[in-house]
Write a structure and sequence with these properties.
- There is one protein chain.
- By secondary structure, this protein is an alpha/beta fold.
- It has a single domain, classed as Alpha-Beta Complex (Spore Coat Polysaccharide Biosynthesis Protein SpsA, Chain A).
- Strands 1, 2, 3, 4, 5, 6, 7, 8 and 9 form a nine-stranded mixed beta sheet that branches.
- The longest helix is centred in the C-terminal third of the chain and has 19 residues.
- The protein starts with a strand and ends with a helix.
Length: about 250
């Protein structure tokens, strides 16, 4: 039987937090899902922990390899393996709140024009809630990433119809680049509720790959600006509206 949701979680050396992440998915109030976990060459006890949970819950589809191939390769594998009508992303160090799937499914079913749905998230410990707006347009993509990746739910029909996959040329912000391509063919929105706790620690991508991330963000913003308009006067007007976000781009244009 085909599940309503395919939950996908790439994993690498996550023994410290993965049990809590897995349990937050298994304890969802919405139960009709498969849980795809790919161990991407972990060298710690991660795979042992995954196997323990896989033996306890038949919804878990666990995969493992000896060689680390990276988050982009592994995430694209998740798209290929998913069978559900919707794909829900999850990170191995985060916590999905119990009603996350139930509330996201309800929203997606009510809004069939939405191809990608996020929600509010909160970095912990000690951070404010990240309250991204409900309706996202291309101008918002120039300012910020439109959704927080670990809380997204994607309509699989949109992913398959347009063959949308992550691009390895945009490491550390491959999600933003994919959302830019997706918004050209579908709509993006955020459910206006807190649905995921996003753990902050020394191994977050924004810390480990900060310089690469910023370089690739500027590449994406340049592409978005050129997609909105190739008219130089119109581009200048846009740059004046959000100069603080486009400052690095302005210096290179």
């Amino acid at each position: 039987m085909i599940p309503k949701i395919s939950v996908f979680m790439p994993v690498y050396n996550s023994e410290e937090f993965i049990a809590e992440a897995i349990e937050s998915i298994l304890n969802q109030t919405f139960k009709d899902f498969e849980f795809i976990i790919i161990n991407d060459g972990s060298t710690d006890r991660t795979w042992d922990i995954i196997q323990k949970y896989a033996k306890q819950d038949s919804r878990i589809r666990a995969y493992s390899r000896c060689i680390n191939k990276g988050i982009v390769y592994t995430a694209n594998e998740g798209f290929e393996l998913a069978k559900g009508e919707y794909i829900a992303r999850m990170d191995s160090d985060d916590i999905s709140l119990p009603e996350r799937f139930e509330k996201q499914i309800k929203y997606m079913e009510k809004h069939p024009d939405i191809g990608l749905l996020g929600a509010w998230t909160q970095y912990f410990p000690g951070f404010d809630i990240s309250k991204r707006p409900e309706n996202i347009d291309l101008f918002y993509l120039l300012k910020d990433c439109p959704v927080d990746q670990p809380v997204v739910m994607i309509r699989k029909s949109v992913i398959d119809k347009y063959n949308l996959r992550y691009d390895e040329n945009y490491l550390a912000c491959e999600d933003q680049e994919l959302w830019f391509r997706l918004i050209k063919v579908s709509k993006i929105a955020n459910l206006q509720e807190l649905l995921l706790m996003h753990r902050w620690h020394g191994n977050n991508i924004s810390i480990k790959m900060g310089d690469i991330q910023q370089q690739n963000i500027q590449k994406i913003r340049r592409q978005i600006l050129n997609f909105i308009t190739t008219n130089e006067k119109e581009q200048d007007a846009i740059k004046k509206i959000i100069p603080e976000m486009l400052a690095p781009l302005l210096l290179k244009s």
